[in-house]
Amino acid sequence: MRLDGGAAQPLVEVLTAGSGRGHVSARFSETTIGRRFRFAGSSLSGSEQLRIRLRDGESGLAAEVVLTGGTQVRTTITNEGPEPVLLLGVTTCAIGLGPVDNLDLVSGEGEWLGEGRWTRRPLREHAPDLNLRIHGQDGRGRYAVTSTGTWSTGARQPTGVLVDRVTGTAVAWQVEHNGPWRWETGERLDGGYLALTGPTDIDHQWQRPLGPGESFTTVPASIAVGDGLHGAVAALTAHRRGLLRPHPDRAALPVVFNDYMNTLMGDPTTAKLLPLIDAAAAAGAEVFCVDAGWYDNDTTWWDSVGEWQPSASRFPGGLIEVVDRIRSHGMVSGLWLEPEVIGVRSPMADKLPAEAFLQRGGTRLVEHGRYHLDLRHPAAVAHLDEVVDRLVEQFGVGYFKLDYNIDPGAGTDLDAPAAGAGLLDHNRAHLRWLDGILDRHPGLILENCASGGMRADYAMLSRMQVQSTSDQQDFRRYPPIAVAAPLSILPEQAASWAYPQPEMSDEQIAYTMCTGMLGRLYLSGRLDAMSDGQRALVREGVATFHGIRADLAATTPVWPLGLPGWDDPWLSLGLHHHDTTYLGIWRRAGAGTDLTLDLRHLRGHPVTVEVLYPRRLRAWACHWESATGSLTVTTADTDPHAARILRIRTTR
C-alpha cells in the first residue's frame, strides 16, 4: 500500500459556505477548493519540520501544511483574498491509499465500562465495490467515524489502522484533540483515501468566519507507517513518546494506590483512610490518592462540588492528619478533582460570572446537576488556578486525579460564531490551563480520567502523565480493556485498576494484579482487611512491577492472540523491548487448559521463559517452538480465572 497510491486525492480539503464540494457527497474528499489548490512551495526547517504551501487563486485561500517529525500534521488556512470566507470544515490532512480490495480496517469502539473494543474487518465491508470505473465518477459514500462533545474517546477511537493483507504495509493514525473530531475512509475512482479532521459544520455545529488576512489552524493529527499492524502501532507508539511533555514521572513510574475502586467508593474518612494508608505503604505503593468525597460533609456531594475545601466532618483532625500519615510512609499525597464542573448547588455557582460558564442561547448549560466552566474566561481560569495552587501549597499535594464526568454537547454560542467554534476555543484554553499548572508545578503528577477512559486522546496525554483506562468494577471483565489499551495509550501511561479483595481466592488476586502490571500499576482494594498471605501476594505483585517498570517506557506492544475480544476465553498482551518480552496471559471462564501463542517476533531464536508473577502459586508449563515462534502454555488450575506474567528472553 502506497500512501498516495497514484491517487489524485488533494492533501487539504476545505468546505466553505460559498464553495462546497466539487462532486456531491457527504465526504471530505473532492471539495471544490481542494481540487483547485496548487502547489506554491515548500521548505524544510532542520530535519524535523516540512512546510508545504498550497494556494487557490480563485478564493484567495492559502494552506500551509506543517509535517513535524515525519508524523504529526497541522494545517493553517489563511484568507489572502479581498472578501471574507465562512469555513465549514478543514481537513488536517487527506491522503490517497491506492486499491481498496486488499485493505483491512482496524478500528475501536468503546463506552463507559467497556472501553477499547477493537475489530479488524475488510474495508470492503464499509466500501463495497461499486465498479466506479464503469460510471466514470468518484463514489459518494464514505465510512466516517466521528466523536461529538468533549468525551473524545467516549464512543469511538480517534485512532485507526489500515493494513494491506498482500504487501503487509500498514498505516496508523490518530486525531490529537480533546474535543470533537472525524476521520473517514472510502473509495475514489482512483483508489482509497483517508481524511482526518477536527470539528466540522456537518458533524459538530462548527464554523469559522475568516476575514482578509485572518488564519485558522486545524487540530493536529498524526500518521505512521509500519510493517503490519504491530509495525504501524510500534511506529505510532514511538511517536506518542515523542509528544510527551518532559516530566520526572516518566523515569519513576511510581505505583499509585487510589482509595476509590471497590474500596471506599467516594466515602473517605480519617478512620477509614489511616489503616488503608498503612496497608498501601506496606504493599509498596508510592503515591496515595484520596479519591472523591474529601470535600463534602455528607454523601450527596454530586451537585455541590466546586469550592474544593476539605470536609470538617470527614476529617475531625483536618485533612492534614491524613496527608501527614501518607507522608510519614514516604508516599506522595494525591487528591481527586473534577475541575471543569461546578455543581448547581455549589456556592461557586453564584460567585463566578455567568460568562464563566458554557451557555446556549443565554442559558447556562446543565448536565447531570453540574454547570460546565468555560476556560476561555479569565475568572474560570483564576478559580481553578487558586484551587490547584492552594491544595499544593497547603497540603503538599503531588498528584491530582483530574476526573471529568459530564459532556456538554455541541458547545457554547456565547461570543462564538457557532456552538462548535466556542467549544474548540474552550478545548484549546483547557490545554493552556494544563500547561500553566505544570509550568508552575513541574513535578506535579496529573492523572487524566473521564469516567474512566472517555477522554483518552493525545492532546490530553501529551501533557498528563497517567491515564485511567476504565471504571470497570468487575475484575473478570477488566482484562480485555487492559490488553487493548496500548493500541491507543502508551503502556507507561495506561493505568488499569488492580483491586484485590479479602474475599478473593489467591488465583483471583493474582488475576486482578496481572491486569494492572503491563501498564501503569493502579492499585486499590481493602488491603487493610486481608490476611498475611493475601497481603504477601499483593506485595509480590507490586515488587514485580517495580522490577520491570524501567523497561515499560521503551516497550512496543504485540498481541499474540490477535486483537482481544470482549468475551474471549483467553487474552494476551506482550510488551517487547530488545531481547525481552513481558507477556501477560489471562485465562477466563470457559477456557481450556492449553494455549498456543504466536510470538513471531521471536521466531528462530532460542529463549528462556520464566514466570515473573505469581511465583508462589502453581506454575504453568511452557513449551517453545523456535522454528514457528510459538509458545504453548499448559495450566493446571481449577479456578476459572487465573493469570500469569511471563518474561521471555532471547539467548545467544
Automatic annotation (TrEMBL):
Keywords of this entry: Glycosidase, Hydrolase
GO terms of molecular function: alpha-galactosidase activity
Record-given protein name: Alpha-galactosidase
CDD domains membership: GH36 (cd14791)
Matches recorded under InterPro entries: Aldolase_TIM, Alpga-gal_N_sf, Alpha-glycosidase_related, GH, Glyco_hydro_36
Top-level taxon of origin: Bacteria
Pfam families to which the protein is assigned, alphabetical: Melibiase (PF02065)
EC number assigned by the record: 3.2.1.22
